[in-house]
Amino acid sequence: MTNEGAKRGRRPGRPDTRRAILDVARRRFLRDGYRSVTLRSIAAEADVDLALLSYYFGSKKGLFGAALALSANPAELLARQIEENDLDSFPERALGQLMAAWEAPQAGAALLGMFQSAVSDQAVAALVKEALEGEIVDRLADLSGGLHAHRRAAAFSCVLAGLITTRYVLRLEPICSMSREEVVRLFVPQLRLALGLPPRRQPSRSRAS
Fold first, then answer.
1. Helix or strand or coil: residue 75?
2. How far, in Å, CA of 126 to CA of 117, rounded?
3. Which domain holds residue 63?
């Protein structure tokens, strides 16, 4: 009895197979958009069985989210900042991280693709919503604590999402042309207010003797 039959067919589920699938999926989603890409076409290009994609990712939406996370996942980025357990500096750090991601060519393209897909596909929008609620709003509410913590965390996310949309999707002037430092100075006070944090004290000027 030989094992020739085992050598036939497409690539089995080796440890590097998942990464190979994600590499193909990210490239295809960015190039062709969410609607035009099929699981079958990704499986063919990655040289794996179609059933393997369902095993790893469950659905096209699951693969889409996993593929974008290779570039920049806002939920993951902000979750890392929450893990610092420093609520007072969180608004500035969170805004800085998101702007850096959106302004990186590859990551920014992925984020724009995710935004466009969320607008046009309710299922993708639900996927993004679940990630934001579980990884950002709920965890930020746990960090801030106190009365209406969940409401304040949601308000913070709303202000942040509105700013990101205005700057990088709608490209509204003068917001889209401001430097990161200018955006931080203008919007961090609003983010602090939404989160229920007190305003930062400005350093006092020493009087001339």
1. helix
2. 11
3. 13-68
